[in-house]
């Protein structure tokens, strides 16, 4: 499950690749040496399932293998197995605390698990080890973007772009942050610049769509109105859970789902998302930050009947029932509003009940 999410459209999180050569003075069996080579080659070729198999074989025979451990870490991350990625990255860092790539991959895994404080610490450590690598700055920008710290994210993307002016991801994501800050001209310039580098950049294409500009258009941002929300019910979101939650909402119109998120809400707080609900059926999904309970770390999710496709960061889709590049499936639940609640301001509150979660919807007070 991908955790804390957030900005004005899709932002891509890319896991760093690891390339190494098997040079060691360790006494190894021929089979271990062959598995180590297979581990590296599979990762280089992008065959992450094979890399996991081969690297696991190496570490079973040689638990202190400093080559296989970081490769396994990155392979799990690429496969979306973020808990396994954290475990293997931690093992790699135990063997080699100077392995910047392991900090970077674990940072990304933590981002996708919603553990932003740990992600922040890992990316900062990666920068301390290699301040000339643009990737950790991009990741910090993504973290701040998820936290709605748009000015902070712009500063981190600027750092990344200063190191790597060809980073389409950093430029496009900076456009998302600029758009959230209301700097439409800067956002448009960023999206256009990113598309010159990578015509398939999903953050840039999504940002252009939000601005109402066709890719390749030279229209000035000042002449581009951002579409106003459709008329409908005003919704407030409240958090009755003991840790921060991240909320997405949706509604169907003739088989098409309009969905948007993720809005962060601190414990015992409410927010008014820019989402004008229409109709009588409201769909919702939410994920919590990690929390401790009974000596274990947990994370709760609300929603579980309808699969819609969303991004890991803030998004606003008119056809969330359709899969797309950069999206993942998220389970939503629905509630039928009574006639008294339709077309009126309502409040949706996410509660904490030990062993269960529940949601209340009522007229806004």
Describe the structure.
The protein is α+β, with helices and mostly antiparallel strands and 365 residues long. Helices cover 40% and strands 22% of the residues. It has helices at 30-44, 48-61, 68-79, 82-95, 100-113, 116-129, 134-146, 150-163, 168-180, 184-197, 202-211, and strands spanning 233-240, 245-253, 256-265, 270-271, 276-277, 281-288, 291-293, 296-298, 301-302, 306-310, 315-317, 328-336, 346-353, 356-363. Strands 2, 3, 6, 9, 10, 11 and 12 form a seven-stranded antiparallel sheet that branches. Strands 1, 4, 5, 13 and 14 form a five-stranded mixed sheet that branches. Mean pLDDT is 79; it is low at 1-27 and 218-232.
Concise structural overview:
Helix 8 (150-163) packs antiparallel against helix 9.
- Strand tally, please? 14
Total domain units: 2
Largest sheet: 7 strands, antiparallel
Number of helices: 11
Structural class: alpha+beta
Give the N-to-C terminal Cα separation. 33 Å
Descriptive key words:
seven-stranded antiparallel beta sheet; 2 domains; Immunoglobulin-like; alpha+beta; five-stranded mixed beta sheet; 11 helices; 365 residues; disordered N terminus; Serine Threonine Protein Phosphatase 5, Tetratricopeptide repeat
List the helices and strands and how they pair.
Layout lengths: L29 H15 L3 H14 L6 H12 L2 H14 L4 H14 L2 H14 L4 H13 L3 H14 L4 H13 L3 H14 L4 H10 L21 E8 L4 E9 L2 E10 L4 E2 L4 E2 L3 E8 L2 E3 L2 E3 L2 E2 L3 E5 L4 E3 L10 E9 L9 E8 L2 E8 L2
Helix pairs in contact: 1-2, 1-3, 2-3, 3-4, 3-5, 4-5, 5-6, 5-7, 6-7, 7-8, 7-9, 8-9, 9-10, 10-11
């Amino acid at each position: 499950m991908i955790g804390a999410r957030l900005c004005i459209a899709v932002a891509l999180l890319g896991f760093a690749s690891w390339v190494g050569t098997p040079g060691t003075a360790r006494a190894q069996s021929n089979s271990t040496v062959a598995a180590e080579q297979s581990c590296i080659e599979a990762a280089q070729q992008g065959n992450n399932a094979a890399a996991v198999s081969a690297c696991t074989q190496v570490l079973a025979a040689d638990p202190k293998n400093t080559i296989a451990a970081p490769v396994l870490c990155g392979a799990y991350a690429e496969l979306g197995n973020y808990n396994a990625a954290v475990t293997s990255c931690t093992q790699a860092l135990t063997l080699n605390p100077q392995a910047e790539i392991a900090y970077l991959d674990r940072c990304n895994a933590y981002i996708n698990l919603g553990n932003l404080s740990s992600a922040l610490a890992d990316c900062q450590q990666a920068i301390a080890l290699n301040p000339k690598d643009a990737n950790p700055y991009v990741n910090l920008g993504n973290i701040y973007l998820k936290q709605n710290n748009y000015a902070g994210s712009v500063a981190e993307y600027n750092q990344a772009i200063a190191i790597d002016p060809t980073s389409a991801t950093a430029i496009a994501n900076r456009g998302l942050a600029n758009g959230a800050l209301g700097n439409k001209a800067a956002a448009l310039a960023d999206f256009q610049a990113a598309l010159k580098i990578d015509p398939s950049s999903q953050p840039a294409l999504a940002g252009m769509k939000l601005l109402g500009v066709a890719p390749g258009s030279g229209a000035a941002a000042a002449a581009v109105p951002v579409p106003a929300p459709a008329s409908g019910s005003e919704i407030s979101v409240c958090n009755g859970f003991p840790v921060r939650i991240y909320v997405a909402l949706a509604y169907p119109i003739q088989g098409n789902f309009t969905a948007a998120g993720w809005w962060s809400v601190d414990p015992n707080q409410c927010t008014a998302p820019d989402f004008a609900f229409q109709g009588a059926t409201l769909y919702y999904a939410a994920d919590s930050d990690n929390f401790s309970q009974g000596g274990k770390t947990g994370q709760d999710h609300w929603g579980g009947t309808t699969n819609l496709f969303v991004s890991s960061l803030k998004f606003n889709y008119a056809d969330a029932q359709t899969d797309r590049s950069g999206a993942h499936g998220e389970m939503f639940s629905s509630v039928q509003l009574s006639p008294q609640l339709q077309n009126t301001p309502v409040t949706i509150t996410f509660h904490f009940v030990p062993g269960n979660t529940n949601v209340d919807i009522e007229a806004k007070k």
